[in-house]
Amino acid sequence: MNAYSKNKVLLSAENIHLQYGEKKILRDVNFKIHDIVREGVHQGQVVALIGRSGIGKTQLFKTLSGLIQPTEGTVRIGEDQHPVKAGQVGIVPQNYILFNHRTIYRNLKIGLDNADVKLTEEEKKRIIEDYAQTFELTEHLNKYPAQLSGGQRQRVSIIQQVLTGNKFILLDEPFSGLDILMVDKVIQLLLKVSTLSEHNTLIIVSHDIENATAVADTVWILGNEDGKAGATIKKEYDLCELGLAWQPEIRADRKFVELISEIKKQL
Ligand SMILES: Nc1ncnc2c1ncn2[C@@H]1O[C@H](COP(=O)(O)OP(=O)(O)OP(=O)(O)O)[C@@H](O)[C@H]1O
């Protein structure tokens, strides 16, 4: 098993409740996301949020990113654990909207233009070219989104969020509509993003349990507990502790396959 330790809290939720009129959507959601130190790597956590359709994943996702205020409770972010504000968490939406009339280069530049740190045009160019090279997009920089495959567009969309300097990135169904090779590339990209900085934290909402679990170090199952109204994190799997995190080939592992079937039973 890998030696690792969990250090600072980067994102936390305390007693989150969300209700619309009489309808309770979320109940008593509590968690802490940390940075992780292991084998010379210092990284943020990668969490997979899994649950049945309509259970409240999107509502939790929006609460965590400050887009909606919970009825009760607080989401805290950063080393100083201040209450989250909209814009502090980057979102890669399901249909990864890019600006179709701008080249990939200019789409990536939007990320840097929106970053807190002000850079010269020359600095921006160098950063974009570096990222493009790392993520195999150099030959596509002057193309338009329509000329790229779905997986390539997805990668551009993820990198765009990374370039804004957002340390917290929520991804909504990042594997949908991708073939298996593209899924592998997106998984590699996500693993790379999570290790780029000790503060990079990813939360992946997905119906694709195998792939979301393969890239994650933590799995949260959102569901109803004991017939109570409102969904909560009814089970958390720590894949570091299970020895199933950070291994790209994990999907063929017997222990991993057993875990997936256990997760499915929890839904
Ligand atoms: N503004 C609202 N007012 C009342 N109920 C709402 C509102 N928005 C969402 N809901 C309800 O909240 C519940 C959770 O919805 P949510 O979209 O979070 O589910 P989900 O888990 O993301 O589903 P899916 O996997 O199908 O995308 C649903 O029952 C939905 O009808």
TrEMBL record:
<dbReference type="InterPro" id="IPR017871">
    <property type="entry name" value="ABC_transporter-like_CS"/>
</dbReference>
<dbReference type="InterPro" id="IPR050166">
    <property type="entry name" value="ABC_transporter_ATP-bind"/>
</dbReference>
<keyword id="KW-0067">ATP-binding</keyword>
<dbReference type="InterPro" id="IPR027417">
    <property type="entry name" value="P-loop_NTPase"/>
</dbReference>
<dbReference type="InterPro" id="IPR003593">
    <property type="entry name" value="AAA+_ATPase"/>
</dbReference>
<dbReference type="InterPro" id="IPR003439">
    <property type="entry name" value="ABC_transporter-like_ATP-bd"/>
</dbReference>
<feature type="domain" description="ABC transporter">
    <location>
        <begin position="11"/>
        <end position="249"/>
    </location>
</feature>
<protein>
    <submittedName>
        <fullName>ABC transporter ATP-binding protein</fullName>
    </submittedName>
</protein>
<keyword id="KW-0813">Transport</keyword>
<dbReference type="GO" id="GO:0005524">
    <property type="term" value="F:ATP binding"/>
</dbReference>
<dbReference type="GO" id="GO:0016887">
    <property type="term" value="F:ATP hydrolysis activity"/>
</dbReference>
<keyword id="KW-0547">Nucleotide-binding</keyword>
<dbReference type="Pfam" id="PF00005">
    <property type="entry name" value="ABC_tran"/>
</dbReference>
